[in-house]
Amino acid sequence: MELVFIITLLIITALFSILLRHRALIEGLAVAASFVTLVGAIIIARSVAAVGIYTSSIFFTVDALGAIILLIIGFLCFATTIYSVRYFREESAKQIVGFTRVKQYFVLLNLFVAAMVLATVASSPIFAWIAIEATTLSTAFLISFYHKPSSIEGAWKYLIINSVGLLLGFLGTLLYFTAVGVDGAAGFVSWQTLLANASSLDPEIAKIAFVFVLIGYGTKIGLAPMHTWLPDAHGKAPVPVSALLSGVLLNVALFTLLRFKVVTDASADPSFTAGLLISFGVFSIVISALIMLNATNYKRLIAYSSVENMGVLLIGFGFGGIGVFASTLHLMYNALIKSSLFMMAGIIFLKYSSTKIAKVYGALKVLPVTSILFFVAFLAITGLPPFGVFMTKMLILSSAITAYPYLTSIALLFMTLLFVGFLKHVAAMVFGKKPDDIPVGEVSVWLIAPPMVLLFLALILSFYLPPILSSLVNAVVLHY
Amino acid sequence: MDISILQFFAGLIFLSLIFLNLTKKNYLAAMVFGIQSFAVMMIFLSSYLETRNLYVLLLVLLTLVIKVILAPMFFIRLIEKHQLSFSVSTYLNMPLTLIVIAMLTFLAHSQRLLPLTNIIPLHQGILAIALSGIFISLFMIINRKEAISQIISILSLENSIVVFAIFAGLEQFPGLQIGIIFDIFVWIIISTIFVTMIYEQFGSNIVTTMNKLKD
């Protein structure tokens, strides 16, 4: 019931926003809808933690990992909506965007969140595919939001690459249905049905299907070498959208891929999927580290960090066992910290009016609170203690080093390189003499509060997992 | 419907893909896509005649309206609006394009991909043709530099996958198929809006003219 309510509410909010003529009403409605989404996500997560699976109807089921993703959607959607309200007010004050654009933003934002919720809770792989395709459609105009040549180029690249990727994912998805012997209008095939029939799936078909699904959903996840759309889209989209793309959408696509991994492992030798995931994971780390060394744009820099972290997650999930435990935690930390980083990048952009690293210096003097938080978030995401990312990266690498010593060593080497590259750019931005023409002072407390809360949440979760989350993580380890 | 008629429609889709790869005129490409979609619709119609399921009939009608009528109409309007009747921009010339198409067709018929083409042994030939269609559509997306051609290529890829699914016996719950076609409809609208936006911003629909993301 809660699920249907959340999805309906988000869609109604989007439709209602089209009719409204008062900005405050549109903003208020969006904040209220995102708050209800958060509350609904918590209720569903509690239910999954208690019962193991949440079923609303034949069309919707939520398992432990789905509940965690739903919680991430809830928290990040609420934080980014609050942030968006203030962010676009600042942009309106600078005459960057007008009322129509803001209205368009909140309409598309609600549809985007609804599509992500649908993709997470869909009980059928085809239904999930439709929802993930819907996320592409709803975000294309969010990426081209500023209507500049570069943003249109980024959005077009995003639309074409992701559409092709998702069509390949669709073909892979269909191939899994050979196990169930689908007959025309026979019936609705759920994830559970696929898993139950996995033993009758031809292992060769399962392997080919997984390759298609990996390429398809891997494109959406931003795995190298299919990542090329990601830095462009994240770099050109409005900051709150980048935060949601990076913090939520990539995880939603990863979640879908992992569900196929479980089905494939039940049919073919699990070392097949593990090898592929680990190889793609390491390659993503290598590519992102090399590019980050010479990055010139700080939004793209953070975007490449997403490619790296998706690679880390893939290694953990590929290896299994303790790797899955660490990856599940890493997924949460990455979502919280990455969104926080993007939001702080937005504050820096509002002050410096540029996303070029070379044009941002002395931020510590101009934006003291934001800069400190930005630097802390950088340390957190690159895996320095006391943040949980340190522990999760260490666990993932230590679990993989026995079976894949060379690949793990390469990953470790490039993670170190990535830290150096990231540090070089962040230090250049934060420290040094401030520009004379930029006034000192934070932009707004409403812009600092959401990323600060997310960062604080990541820190708390690094030391303490609430019982609900703990039982969800344990359930994920057992199933994936 | 007789299997030989279905084979004819699968063959028609394959031929349309070869034509789409070779044609230099956008207008013709839009028309041929309409014919290709008509063949897909006829294959759906045969499914309806077998099952008499009203949802499948709805699917036939939606395919007719969205893919056979509306999509080519959108493309032709765009072509006329921006005077884009010719599209000669490809990375490979015609002989090389033909060689690649031949190689991809050979690949789809190879032993290596037998697990895919042998899902229903009776349909092995058609499945190999449908798989060739998937590969050729993918190649077309890469080879074409023009935005409308890329859109038609992606829609052709979707058509080829649908044909493969039908002959492999992997047709989905009709409600979901309607969801997919609705998604495709929204995709067509959004992509055509983007073509206009690209033309307005870059003065051309050749995607290689977009080079503002080099920072």
From TrEMBL, chain B:
Membrane-spanning residues: 6-22, 27-49, 55-79, 91-110, 122-142, 151-170, 176-199
* Places the protein is found: Cell membrane
Kindly provide the name given to this protein in its UniProt entry. Hydrogenase
Q: How does it sit in the membrane?
A: Multi-pass membrane protein
Top-rank taxon of the source lineage equals: Bacteria
List GO terms (cellular component aspect).
plasma membrane
**What is the first-listed, main subcellular location in coarse terms?**
membrane
Has UniProt tagged this entry with the keyword Membrane? Answer: yes
Quote the InterPro entries the UniProt record gives.
HyfE-like
> Keyword annotations for this protein?
Cell membrane, Membrane, Transmembrane, Transmembrane helix
Q: Organism source for this protein?
A: Candidatus Lloydbacteria bacterium RIFCSPHIGHO2_01_FULL_49_22
